Automatic annotation (TrEMBL):
Single GO MF descriptor: protein transmembrane transporter activity
Keywords assigned: Ion transport, Membrane, Mitochondrion, Mitochondrion outer membrane, Porin, Protein transport, Transmembrane, Transmembrane beta strand, Transport
Bilayer topology: Multi-pass membrane protein
UniProt xrefs under PANTHER family: MITOCHONDRIAL IMPORT RECEPTOR SUBUNIT TOM40
Free-text function comment from the UniProt entry: Channel-forming protein essential for import of protein precursors into mitochondria.
Compartment list: Mitochondrion outer membrane
GO CC terms in record: mitochondrial outer membrane; pore complex
UniProt similarity note: Belongs to the Tom40 family.
InterPro entries xrefs: Porin_dom_sf (IPR023614), Porin_Euk/Tom40 (IPR027246), Tom40 (IPR037930)
Organism the protein comes from: Ephemerocybe angulata
Ranges in a coiled coil: none
UniProt record, GO biological process: monoatomic ion transport; protein import into mitochondrial matrix
Primary location group: mitochondrion
Protein name: Translocase of outer membrane 40 kDa subunit
């Protein structure tokens, strides 16, 4: 038997010829792509948070103040939920006795799934409004809003596309766009996180009421969030001479305060309006109060007697005009679902 040293082995295969890659048009610009990849990796390693959107800038202040919640006269909202997944509910809203708006009735409906949100309503005069949100992915959302009225000039359609990156938000809107002469209002905004606390962005308005007339305006904004997210400050400057600053702070789990300052310095008007507000969330009630530099003091109390019944009392006093108004309302919720279908524990027998 031959020893191992005496064995012969086949010669190794010849090396493979080098593969010649075809010349590419993008080879001259590949350094730019490589630089962008390095920049994207560096930005991702920073761990910058998502800044939110320009539309929701100062949403905490708006939720604390009463500007979007105050009412007068009497109102009633009755809601019935037919299913939770998908969500489907209808609402009947009544309002009368207001000093500022005539009596009205509105019927609304909501249908929602994880990817689609539909909302529509019609009032007693036949005015119809609706909105649809379609989420193509966790970052890409398309939105459509429409309003149709019997009054001339009150019809509106808005198309919107929003993309939310890891540390930025890009949004584009078109209001009453015309594909024939490109008239309408076009809005674009961008908000970018530069640090873990600071986000800076802009919003541009391009208005084209007629093919011969157009106007472009850009506003700049900033948002600063504390490390513990217990307070947020925002600022926005418009080229027309309007500057807005807001501040919101969460004092405790149940108490929030907010301040808003708007400075107007235009050739036609020079003014400043300051607003202070607070919100108290109790165990079965929510109380909001607000005072501004125009002499208005307002308050809103929402008392929840049961999970399906709430009573509201609102009031506002205008000291400069020596006027006052009061509003009362009820919110009633009904459902045909069982406690198990609503995700609530059933009562013990």
């Amino acid at each position: 038997m031959a020893s191992i040293s005496e064995k012969t082995f086949p010669p190794p295969p010849p090396p493979a010829p080098p593969v010649l890659l075809p010349s590419s048009y993008f080879n001259p610009v590949s350094p730019f792509f490589n630089a962008y990849d390095r920049f994207a990796t560096w930005r991702r390693d920073l761990g910058l948070p998502h800044p939110g959107s320009v539309e929701n800038l100062g949403k905490e202040v708006k939720a604390t103040h009463l500007s979007n919640y105050i009412f007068d006269g009497a109102r009633a909202d009755m809601t019935k939920t037919f299913s939770m997944n998908p969500l489907f509910q209808v609402t009947h809203s009544f309002a009368l006795g207001s000093q500022t708006v005539p009596p009205s009735y509105n019927f609304g409906a909501i249908y929602a799934t994880p990817a689609v949100f539909l909302q529509g309503g019609v009032d007693h005069e036949g005015n119809v409004n609706g909105r649809m949100n379609r989420g193509w992915s966790a970052n890409n959302i398309s939105k459509v809003q429409a309003q149709f009225s019997q009054q001339a000039g009150h019809n509106m359609i808005q198309l919107e596309q929003e993309y939310q990156g890891a540390d930025y938000t890009l949004n584009a809107k078109a209001i009453n766009p015309s594909p024939v002469d490109f008239t309408g209002i076009y809005v674009g905004s961008y908000l970018q996180s530069f640090t873990k606390n600071l986000a800076v962005g802009f919003e541009s308005f391009y208005q084209r009421p007629s093919p011969e007339d157009s106007e472009l305006a850009t506003s700049y904004l900033a948002k600063y969030t504390s490390n513990d997210k217990n307070w947020i400050a925002t600022a926005q400057v418009q080229p027309s001479g309007i500057a807005t600053a807001t501040y919101w702070q969460k004092l405790s789990e149940r108490v929030e305060v907010a301040a808003d300052l708007q400075v107007i310095a235009t050739p036609a008007r020079r003014d400043a309006i300051a607003t202070l507000g607070a919100k108290y969330d109790l165990r079965t009630a929510s109380f909001k109060t607000q005072i501004d530099s125009t002499g208005k003091v307002s308050a809103l109390l929402e008392q929840r007697f049961t999970p399906t019944f709430s009573f509201l009392v609102a009031g506002e006093i205008d000291h400069f005009k020596n006027a006052a108004k009061v509003g009362v309302g009820v919110m009633i919720e009904g459902t045909s679902l069982t406690p198990e279908e609503m995700g609530m524990p059933s009562e013990m027998q």
